[in-house]
Structures are given as C-alpha cells and as structure tokens.
Amino acid sequence: MAEGNRDFKRRFGRRGRDKDRGERRDEPKRVVPEVPAIQCTVCGKQIFDLSSALAGRDGTGAVHFDCALAAVSQGERLGPGERIHYIGRGAFAVIEFKDKSNTAFTIKRRISWEKEGEKYDWRKTLQQRMGI
C-alpha cells in the first residue's frame, strides 16, 4: 500500500457488517401466530400444506385438495372427453376439451365446493402468518 492510503477507509466490502448482522435492534420482532395442527375432515390425516387446503363442503374444518377432488369425482358422472378441474374461488367444474391438444375447452357445469365470501378461522390464521 502506498503511504497516502493508510488512513483511507474502504469504500466497498465488509465495512459495518459486524455491527448490524441484518437485524435492526430498535424495531421489535413481529409476532407470528402459530398455526395449529389441522386434521382433514374427509380422511382424518393432518394437513401440512394449508395453502392448498380447501374448506369442507359443509363449511366446517379443512380438507386436503386431493380429498375434495376425489369427493367431487365420486359424485359426478362423466361423459366421454369430460374431466373435473378446479377453476378457483372454491369451485370445481366439469369441462370438455374441444380438441386433442387440450388447449380449448368448454365448461359444462360448475360444482360449488366452498361457500363464496366466507372467511374461515384456519385461513385467517394462515393469512396473518403470511402477512396478508
């Protein structure tokens, strides 16, 4: 190093990282609510991925997405070329594809699974945990 650069502070690099470590000490940590263990009302097993769970058909409890799809499939008679798909907002639909590429389809009938606009306790806890 040159004699003139001895007192020169580094512009880049690890300057000031020991003090902070990525946390601010003046702000309290946000309290994240614990998500309780929730059992599926159809199969009785624990639901580990609540983000993909649906409310029960009668509005009580939560069910696995696969359990809800299986329950809807059992109650519907499908014609040739028809399938059951989740279309969002708590509803399934029987759809028929127009061609073999499965890009264009027609919704034959809509099957409501969750009550629209209803807030469930387990979903509120999940939203608070995610910060929504």
Brief overview:
With 132 residues, the protein is α+β, with helices and mostly antiparallel strands. It has one domain (15-130).
Would you give an account of this structure?
The radius of gyration is 26 Å and the shape is extended. The chain has helices at residues 17-20, 65-75, 121-130, and strands at 38-39, 46-47, 54-55, 62-63, 82-88, 91-97, 105-112. The chain has one domain. A hairpin with a 2-residue loop joins strand 5 (82-88) and strand 6 (91-97). The termini are far apart. Helices cover 19% and strands 23% of the residues. The protein has 132 residues and is α+β, with helices and mostly antiparallel strands. A three-stranded antiparallel beta sheet has the order 5-6-7, covered by helices on one side.
Uncertain residue ranges? none
- The total domain count is 1
- Global mean pLDDT: 78
Radius of gyration: 26 Å
